[in-house]
Amino acid sequence: MPHRPHIQDPAPLHDQVGRLYFRVVLPTVAVALTLSSEWSDGPVLPLLTLLAALGAALHALLPARGRDALRYVFALVATGFVLLVAALGGAPPFQGTAAQLTVALLFTPATLMAWTLMFADRPRTALGLNTGLTLSVCLLVWRWQREGLHPAPQLNLPLLVLVIGMTVTYYAVTFAQMNARYHAGEQERVRDPLTGLLNRRALNERPDGPEPLHVAVLDIDHFKRVNDTHGHLAGDRVLRAVADVIQDALAGHGEAYRWGGEEFVLLLPAGSDAPAMLEGVRREIAARQFTGGQRVTLSAGLTRRGDGEDLGRAFERADSALRAAKDAGRDRVVLAAPGGLGAAPLDKRAAGR
To answer: Which DSSP letter does residue 10 get?
Structure first.
């Protein structure tokens, strides 16, 4: 069984961007604004600094579910902050300065890009938040210009902010859609479409780490008879049922692959009771009744991979144990000792106790 370098599926785009935004961008913004000499010109920059620092601190402290909610709360609070400053723009402490206008014009496109990607899993939410922020900044810039801030009197800054905001959002949405299509394609590449399990390609590309684990190879006994007697659709139902039983038995602990045809491969944690789990799967399948009263059974070979042992060697040993189970009459689990020192059938009655 060959092994090639494998790139693990990355975290979703919105999680990656959210972590970058809260853990890197906001702290950097807070530090940059703290070092600004414009703090004496009003409360705008100090409040913005506090907002950035608070967002970064909360993201670092909150659990995963809290971090997911934080992105919504932070975006709404940030937009509300801009609206508040725009509403108070006529009061002397909130009348803009050239430096504050520069901050608004620089941070707005970057924030729109970050929010679009941070809400890549909620594109309509991203569009709504970006629209709210863009319009709020347009209102703020218009208010500051109206109150006498005219760095370039001939330049329509609110319109410029609107155009830039729409353009940045469009490109960010396009990138998010491309990323989603790529991620979906990667999932399809390593998933068996019939059973939903990982496929042979995924197992071949799995990194061969040194950790000990249990390796099992399972095969549906006399599967050709199911197809010949009841048709391939009935065979597909059997395969899906077996896959469902395997996934229920794993309960998220371990990996299940459809190796090909009616054969499956399981990689189980070293600390799990692999023999009992496999025997439970075998009993569950044997007890089921399929189309036309058809019953099927499973044979399985199981071994434990030792520290530093090549996964391919352990697979071959489990596959040999599967053949031993077939030769011994099928409908059983055979254990192969590490190092290939022999195979022994699992006492089904003992496993059931």
So the answer is: P
Cα gap 100→121, rounded to integer Å: 32
The answer for residues whose C-beta is within 8 angstroms of residue 102's C-beta and 6 or more apart is none
- Rg of the chain in Å (alpha carbons): 30
How far apart, in Å, are the Cα atoms of 63 and each of 10, 121, 307, 344? 20, 19, 34, 47
Select from 208, 190, 195, 175 the least CA-distant residue to 235.
195
Which is catalytic among the residues 262, 263, 309, 316?
A: 262
| Distances in whole angstroms, Cα of residue 2 to Cα of each of 72, 200, 264 | 45, 11, 17
What tokens appear for 42 in the block?
A: 């009003």
Tens of pLDDT, residues 158-215:
888 899 989 988 888 888 778 777 766 666 678 888 998 999 988 888 877 777 899 9
Cβ-in-10-Å burial (0-12, 13-18, 19+) of 154 comes to: exposed
Give CA–CA dist 134/141, Å, rounded. 11
The type of residue at 161 is: V
**CB half-sphere exposure, 269, CA atoms < 13 A:** 9
Domains of the chain, first to last:
13-190 (no CATH), 198-352 (3.30.70.270)
Which of 170, 102, 175, 172 lies closest to 137, judged by CA?
102
| 0.90 surpassed by pTM | no
Four-residue CA torsion sign, 250, 252, 254, 260: positive
pLDDT in tens, 284-318: 999 988 766 778 999 999 999 877 788 888 999 99
Q: Alpha carbon of 167 to those of 106, 109, 110, 274: distances in Å? A: 14, 9, 12, 55
188 is catalytic: no
